Amino acid sequence: METLARKISQQTLDRISGHLGLEEITAANGPFRALISPAFGDAEIGSMRLWRGERLQKMVYIGMTVAAIGIDSHMIFAFTMPDSPVPNFTLDSVYARMPPVADTEQPEGEEQYAFHLDLIPKCDLGVNHAYLRSVYQPLSETRQRLRAADGIYPALLSTTQRAIMSPWMLARRATPEAYREQVYPAVEEYLSHWLELVDQGLGDIADSIFGETGSSREAASRTLIFNREIDPVWAKVDRMLGEATSGQLLAVLRSLGVESAS
Q1: 134 within a domain of the structure (yes/no)
Q2: What gap in Å lies between CA 82 and CA 65, rounded to an integer?
Q3: Which of 51, 89, 117, 225 could be bridged to 78 by S-S, CB 3.0 to 4.6 A?
Q4: In the chain, what percentage of residues exceed pLDDT 70?
Q5: Which helix (H) or strand (E) holds 65?
Q6: What pLDDT sits at residue 262?
Q7: CA 39, chain centre distance (Å)
Q8: Is 63 part of any domain?
Q9: Element holding 234 (H helix, E strand)
């Protein structure tokens, strides 16, 4: 399926891997891990891809496409070094051919898109104003513009999910036109800002961060973000891939190490 969700995902992967000179970790027969679905006759419905680099701990991509039910889903998580205060980057882009979710304002239609875009903080924003000002406030205009745009509608996230991400998180649904004209530029602006942070670092701000930082905080943060009890998307992944495979994906996302291909 050639969808806008797939296109923006591939553009983002290419931009990050090219800019940071990442090396993809592959298995002998292709991507890091092929994703086989028992629910669809043991068909291969996607892949997990994995990259590593000198300035980025790892980048993880999980893509699943099932044309029979009209799903094209692409997750990207780019993790900075565990002890780096530079936030992690995430983009989740999804095409779904299904009725709109209840309790949203999105109109009915055959093509519907959803996305989740954020820079995941590495410290407590409530007590680190310099970090908040440098890392997040430059994104405020983009965030406000997209939230107010025609064809952009709220997504259903729990309060817990919102609390463990950043207040600048964009998690919305969109019409195809709005996805192309509004979401694509917003992703570019978030991504360009994040790449600048990776390139330049945080300077003196890194030495003045108050509260817990580093590997232990990053491990705790990933355990909450990639959590079946908190994020209902993993129940859907369980149904498509089986709990064992889904658990392996979660383990890679949570891990502070860089896995090798088997």
Answers
A1: yes
A2: 31
A3: 89
A4: 95
A5: strand 58-66
A6: 67
A7: 25
A8: yes
A9: helix 233-241
In angstroms, the Cα distances linking 14 to 68, 108, 140, 231 are: 28, 33, 25, 27
Contact 57, 81 (CB under 8 A): yes
Work out the burial of residue 191: count CB atoms within 10 Å of its CB; fewer than 13 is exposed, 13-18 middle, 19 or more buried: buried
Q: What are the residue ranges of helices labelled H in 67-200?
A: 129-135, 140-148, 159-163, 176-178, 184-200
pLDDT in tens, 21-59: 999 999 988 999 999 999 999 999 999 999 999 999 999
Instruction: Report the CATH number at residue 231.
Output: 3.40.1500.20
Residue 180 near residue 3, CB atoms below 8 Å: no
Report how far residue 176's alpha carbon sits from residue 237's, in angstroms, rounded to the nearest whole number: 24
CB 25 within 8 A of CB 52: yes
Q: Tally the residues of the chain.
A: 262
Residue 42: other Cβ atoms inside 10 A: 9
Q: How many CB atoms lie within 10 A of CB 126?
A: 9
Q: Has this prediction a pTM greater than 0.85? A: yes
Total number of domains in the chain: 1
Residue 30 domain boundaries: 4-253
d(CA 216, CA 45): 34
| 3-state secondary structure (DSSP) of residue 36 | strand
Condensed to tens digits (0 to 9), the pLDDT of residues 227-256 reads 999 999 999 999 999 999 999 999 999 999
d(Cα 259, Cα 262) in Å, to the nearest integer? 9
Strand 33-37 vs strand 152-154: parallel, antiparallel, or unpaired? unpaired
Residue type for position 42: D
